[in-house]
Write a structure and sequence with these properties.
Elements: H1 6-31, E1 54-63, E2 66-80, E3 86-99, E4 102-103, E5 109-113, H2 122-129, E6 132-133, E7 156-157, E8 167-171, E9 180-181, H3 193-210, E10 218-224, H4 225-241, E11 247-253, H5 268-283, H6 295-316, H7 322-336, H8 340-345, H9 352-358, E12 366-367, E13 375-376, H10 390-409, H11 442-451, E14 456-462, H12 470-478, E15 490-495, H13 505-522
Parallel strand pairs: 5-8, 5-10, 10-11, 11-14, 14-15
Antiparallel strand pairs: 1-2, 2-3, 3-4, 3-8, 3-9, 6-7, 12-13
Helix pairs in contact: 2-10, 3-4, 4-11, 5-6, 5-12, 6-7
């Protein structure tokens, strides 16, 4: 039977029902709003989208017996390209001293970073320069080996912070820390020698402009590959942005990669690493009695022999006579703590991996790369390479726990991204024009110091650093080609520790003292700093 209301009535009923459903849906939406779009994970953020958020907190720390009030700002700086398109969200933490509640935009400011490539700035931030630090037992109670903190680790005030003499900005290059490319942007455009220098330099220029710090004496402090970046920045900031620096601190430096890369046809690292082998063997009591007495005396002898007889022997290659080979092997053994037979089997060329495995092989131990005072235990005592670096294993846990706890717990900065301490996601690193040669930014530094004759450089070296040996740093400085009038602008400092010399309390204090003297010489505006 046909509905008497007809098709028009049916349409009317359907329309009325649809309207009722629509009204119900609107009411439900009002009561239960949809989750915000940022709840969806993206490559450049997580459930908590922090790209536009910065958090500033106020604190106080005692440095050298003086109370220092300061503000801490943690967050992103959105970094655009030349066409004002945002390419990356770069994370940083800035510390600004306050006196009577006010800041001074004419104070010295230091931009600090670590290396890798792929390292965040956590090491300098939480180890040496910042107002809070990770305490590491420095081994004074165990002369044979530095001890390692017990989880869950601590954070303490840093009485040796540099904040009393300079404001501080810690930068995490793209893909390290919380820094990421923006959505749709490739990380490759940041992961390279020249690319890294350009983007970090652009960050420094933008931060300096926004915070009105062009009137401040400006410093860079880099560690490890961060010294490569700092030397490159000395030229980029000066030539591209017209920003002239007052000083650069190079901690555990490498400017010429030909001095540290053990490659076929490159004998340079073998003789430049030898004094660090001597220091390591001295620390572990593996030298002959005449070399075991005094470290400084032994290192002087090691330098002289490495740059003399040993270098000449390496240069002869296969033309070296059997008699001279035997003589050199015996002397090499005495300076390294290895057996003469091991030196002969290595063809007089002891690379870092073999040394770290061989020195304490009879004791079932290996020695560290970043700090050769540390010892490790491999699965097997055979082979020529270690399973891991015990010195990195000793610091990775304490520093990772500290930075994650510190961000939320003290700086009130929340971000669900993983804070990348030291990542391999920046690899392969693009060395650009250096692909068919060793990367070398030493001439960039020479040029910057020549154009800006007020620029000072401090080079800090650890005796037990097998990553960037002190003799290699000395060689690089001695080959800068500086005019005689500028050579006194380079200051050298040495520490009885490894790559991160500040993990030893005595060297943390010495680093602060040396830096304070350097800053006073480089900038009259740098306030004198004491030590607690």
């Amino acid at each position: 039977m046909r509905d008497p209301r007809g098709a028009r009535g049916v349409r009317s009923l359907c329309y009325s029902a649809a309207m009722r459903h629509l009204l119900i849906a609107v009411l439900l939406l009002a009561l239960c709003p949809l989750a915000p779009a940022q709840d969806k994970k993206k490559d450049d953020g997580t459930k908590r989208d922090k790209r536009d958020e910065q958090v500033t907190t106020s604190h106080e720390v005692t440095i050298g017996g003086e109370k220092v009030q300061y503000s801490a700002t943690a967050g992103y700086l959105r970094l655009p390209d030349s066409e004002d398109k945002v390419k990356a969200n770069v994370f940083y933490v800035a510390y600004t001293r306050k006196k009577d509640g006010a800041t001074d935009p004419s104070r010295p400011i230091t931009f600090a970073f670590n290396g890798g490539p792929g390292s965040s700035s956590v090491w300098l931030h939480m180890g040496a320069l910042g107002p809070r630090r990770v305490p590491m037992n420095d081994g004074q109670d165990r002369p044979d080996e530095p001890s390692i903190p017990t989880p869950p680790y601590r954070i303490v005030d840093n009485g040796y912070s540099w904040l009393d003499m300079t404001d501080l900005v810690f930068i995490d290059p793209v893909t390290t820390g919380y820094s990421r490319p923006t959505e749709g942007e490739s990380g490759n455009q940041f992961h390279g020698l020249d690319e890294d220098i350009r983007w970090v330099g652009d960050f420094i220029r933008l931060y300096t402009t926004r915070e009105q710090r062009w009137g401040s004496p400006k410093f860079l402090a880099g560690e490890s590959y961060g010294t490569t970046r700092a030397a490159g920045l000395s030229g980029y900031l000066q030539d591209t942005h017209g920003m002239y620096l007052s000083g650069i601190v190079l901690i555990s430096s490498v400017l010429n990669f030909g001095t540290i890369n053990f490659d076929e046809g490159n004998d340079t690292p073998y003789w430049l690493f030898l004094p660090t082998y001597t220091a390591t063997a001295w620390y572990h009591r593996r030298l002959a009695p005449d070399l075991q007495k005094d470290l400084a005396v032994s290192l002087t002898a090691a330098r002289q022999w490495a740059g003399g007889d040993y270098l000449r022997a390496l240069a002869q290659g296969d033309a070296l006579s059997a008699e001279d080979r035997d003589r050199i092997a015996a002397r090499l053994a005495s300076f390294t703590g290895l057996s003469k037979d091991a030196c002969l089997r290595a063809n007089l060329r002891i690379d870092i991996s073999f040394f770290c495995k061989e020195l304490l092989r009879d004791a079932g131990r290996t020695v560290g790369r970043l700090d050769s005072r540390y010892t490790g235990i491999d699965e097997s005592g055979v082979g020529s390479r270690t399973d891991y670096d015990p010195s990195y294993a000793a610091i990775q846990g304490p520093y990772t726990a500290a930075i994650n706890r510190y961000m939320r717990g003290e700086l009130n900065y929340e971000n669900d991204l993983s804070y990348e301490i030291l990542t391999g996601r920046v690899q392969p690193w693009n060395y650009g024009s250096a692909r068919n040669r060793y990367a070398d930014v030493a001439d960039t530094l020479r040029s910057a110091m020549t154009k800006n004759r007020d620029l000072r450089v401090m080079v800090a070296c650890g005796y037990y650093d097998l990553a960037t040996p002190f003799y290699a740093a000395e060689y690089t400085v001695d080959h800068l080609g500086l005019d005689a009038s500028l050579r006194r602008h380079v200051t050298r400092a040495y520490y009885e520790c490894g790559h991160m010399m500040y993990i030893r309390d005595a060297d943390l204090a010495k680093l602060k003292h040396d830096a304070a003297e350097f800053y006073k010489g480089a900038s009259p505006a740098a306030a004198p700093a004491g030590a607690p």
